[in-house]
Every structure is written in C-alpha cells, then in structure tokens.
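User: Teach me something about this protein's shape.
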Amino acid sequence: MSSVRLQIVEAIAAALATATGLTVHRNLDYALKANKLPAIALMSGRDEPTGAGYVNHIEHIANITAFVLVAADGDPEAAADPVECGIHAALVAPATFGGHQLVSMARGQCDWNFDLGDCAARELSYSFGFITTLASLESAA
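Assistant: First, the predicted structure itself:
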C-alpha cells in the first residue's frame, strides 16, 4: 500500500491530465526526453508534520511542483498560460484527492526556467495539507 501523501499526489496527477488533456510525467527528465510539448511534469517536494500532533493522528503539509513544459520558440508565456490556469482550477476546486480529504491547498511561488534546451518551463508550486493516523502513514485519519 502507498502512503496517503503518494495516493494524493497520484490523484493530483490524474486530475491535471484530465483538466488539461496533457500527458503528466512524474519525472522531469523523462518529460524532457519525451519531447512532446506541451506537457506537465509533477514532482513531489518536501513534506513534514505541521507540528500539530494529536493523540490519534498527525497533520502533514506536502509540497508539489508542476512544470508546464512548452516550446521555447514563439511565445512560451502565452503557450503556458492556459495550462497554468487549468492546473490551478483543478487543484483548488476539489476538497479530496484519491478519496482523501485535504486540510488545505495553497499556491506558492511560481517561476520560469528558460535553460532547458528546446523548451521552457513554467514552475508552479503548491502545498497541500492532509492527515494520517499516528500509527501509519498509509492510513488517513
């Protein structure tokens, strides 16, 4: 069985594919090698307990970064913008992912990366909160 965090991230990847109609890769290198643009790479980042420990459960915060990969020629900002809007709408609309209730979903810092060869990337950072049982990271509280 997977951790609650990974179950949520996998459900997020599926939601982004549905919302945008694009392939969502879980590895940035593979996404760059696939050379099918536009595409999305969804990467897991830092996760940690929030410090709010309870008798039966633990609250966690996890970070994800979605890279919107677009062709570097032309107008990459215009190409990435509708995908970014679709990603944001898909992430903030539901209160659950993978059947797990989220405590929070927040947009973080976003940036551009133009040093990727033939493509550019819009880097979108989000954090989400979730709860597990004290005894297992695989069980939601």
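Now, about its shape. Residues 4-20 form the longest helix (17 residues). The helical segments are 4-20, 28-34, 76-92. If you'd like, I can walk through any region in more detail.
User: That's plenty for now, thanks!
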